[in-house]
Amino acid sequence: MEALHIPDGVERVLFRTQNTDRRLMWKSQFDSSYIGFTKEGAEWLRDHTNIKLIGIDYLSVAAFDHLIPAHVVLLQNKDIILVEGLNLDDVAVGLYELHCLPLKLLKSDGSPVRCILQS
């Protein structure tokens, strides 16, 4: 995580990983070998950045073998929003403006969203 050199002040990061290159979101079968955060990676993000939103290009921000521990680390901080299942096929590395438009659901702690990137 440290090698990413996330600049100070950055509060929202979308992770375009090998999940996109492997086109995992377009496969009909779930693939447990997807790229996601380990507990240690989640702890590093929480402890060394000011990130308030983490987006990733598969069904979970947490690696399959770290599902519960990584989610617990990230969701204990009520300031961090997780956005999963992003289509980042044509998104190059860079700075963007991100708009996430959630459905308003009663008595829910999550919602499907439509995310829009503007360069």
From TrEMBL:
Q: Which domain of life is it from?
A: Eukaryota
Molecular function (GO) terms for this protein are: arylformamidase activity
Listed Gene3D superfamilies: Putative cyclase
* SUPFAM superfamilies reported in the protein's UniProt record: Putative cyclase (SSF102198)
Fetch the InterPro entries from UniProt: KFase/CYL, KFase_sf
Cytoplasm as UniProt keyword: no
Q: Which UniProt keywords apply?
A: Extracellular matrix, Secreted
Q: Which GO terms describe its biological process?
A: L-tryptophan catabolic process to kynurenine
Compartments, record wording: Secreted, Extracellular space, Extracellular matrix
Into which family does the record put it? Belongs to the Cyclase 1 superfamily.
Protein name, per record: Cyclase
Organism of derivation = Ceratopteris richardii (Triangle waterfern)
